[in-house]
Design a protein that fits this description.
By secondary structure, the chain is of the alpha/beta class. The chain is about 35% helix and about 15% strand. It binds 2-keto-D-gluconic acid. 2-keto-D-gluconic acid (8YV) binds near residues 50 and 75.
Length: about 325
């Protein structure tokens, strides 16, 4: 049977692979070096997730017969793509199946942050309503929303925003044929809008794209929403901007060192902070698990990965 390595627990994938493949759970091995020395040469496929950490040469060197890395999630900044391409491997991700789910959550987080929904609910639960109403919140009315990164999820967010009667601007590497206002840089986008929604991929190319300059341009009414990767926002600059009133507030689903969240963010009750739940509904996570499994089955049965991000068409099979 084909031997598959699992770097982190992925029950939604594992239940679909059981019986069809032999699974080797690296994450359960007390001595990972000894485990890899024993099973490494037999491994031809593997499942990776963001929580499994950066996947590069450190691990790949133990897997001389690896053909495919099937990653759980649309973002693949945890994959060392040059190392994977160098070894002429295939890597797949899980696009499309989570697009609408993450877009829904983005709008939820945006509204929760602007209208201060979590704080209003705390007001009720803590019995404060009996003593007085919740203070008036900022509003989405009259705002201009900037989308940083107009990929599939960015477009799905923009489509939803059209129904909210706001102006939509965007910045992305290449101007797209869309009825929204394009900006040449994140800084000029931030200068034009007062809500900035971060939807870029993670990785080196976008690291700290949102820093002090962007936040200053976003301005004192500015709201930052990040559902992409924590690494895209310079956390220190964000904390400073929130503390100084350089921007008004933030809604964050992702963090640079997640699941650790800086105390300085936790200390600000007006922020809305979520534990990376963008795609985390039952139906969408099941669909992602299915696509990871389908990528492996398709590769080993037909020689065609379904959703490759790297396809170097390697080795003779
Ligand atoms: C998941 C995500 O939380 O798809 C992504 O890129 O960030 C999320 O859907 C993550 O991939 C789980 O490992």
């Amino acid at each position: 049977m084909t031997q598959i390595l699992l770097t982190a627990p992925t029950p939604l994938v594992e239940k679909r692979l059981e019986g069809r493949f032999t699974l080797h759970r690296l994450y359960q091995a007390p001595d990972k070096g000894a485990f890899l020395a024993e099973v490494g040469p037999s491994i031809t496929g593997m499942v990776a997730t963001q929580s499994g950490g950066l996947l590069g040469e450190d691990l790949l060197q133990h897997l001389p017969n690896l053909q495919i890395i099937a990653s759980f999630g649309v973002g693949y900044d945890h994959l060392d793509i040059p190392a994977i391409a160098e070894r002429r491997l295939i890597a797949t991700n899980t696009p499309d199946v989570l697009t609408e789910e993450v877009a829904d959550l983005t709008l939820g987080l945006l509204l929760a942050t602007i209208r201060q929904i979590p704080a209003a609910e705390r007001h009720l639960r803590e019995g404060k309503w009996l003593k007085g109403g919740f203070p008036f919140s900022p509003s989405l009315r009259g705002r201009r929303v900037g989308i940083l990164g107009l990929g599939d999820i960015g477009l799905a967010v923009a489509r939803r925003l059209e129904g909210f009667a706001v102006e939509i601007d965007y910045h992305t590497r290449h101007k797209r044929d869309v009825p929204y206002t394009y900006h040449e840089s994140p800084v000029s986008l931030a200068a034009a809008v007062d809500v900035l929604v971060v939807l870029t991929p993670g990785g080196d190319a976008t690291r700290h794209l949102v820093g002090a300059e962007v936040l200053t341009e976003l301005g004192p009414d500015g709201i930052l929403i990040n559902v992409a990767r924590g690494s895209v926002v310079d956390t220190e600059a964000l904390i400073e901007a929130l503390q100084n009133g350089t921007i008004l507030s933030a809604g964050l689903d992702v963090f640079e060192d997640e699941p650790r969240v800086p105390q300085a963010l936790l200390d600000q009750p007006g922020l809305v902070l979520l534990p990376h739940i963008g795609s985390a509904s039952v139906i969408t996570r099941e669909a992602m698990g299915q696509l990871v499994a389908d990528n492996l089955v398709s590769w080993f049965e037909t020689g065609k990965p379904l959703t490759p991000v790297v396809e170097t068409r390697p080795f003779l099979r």
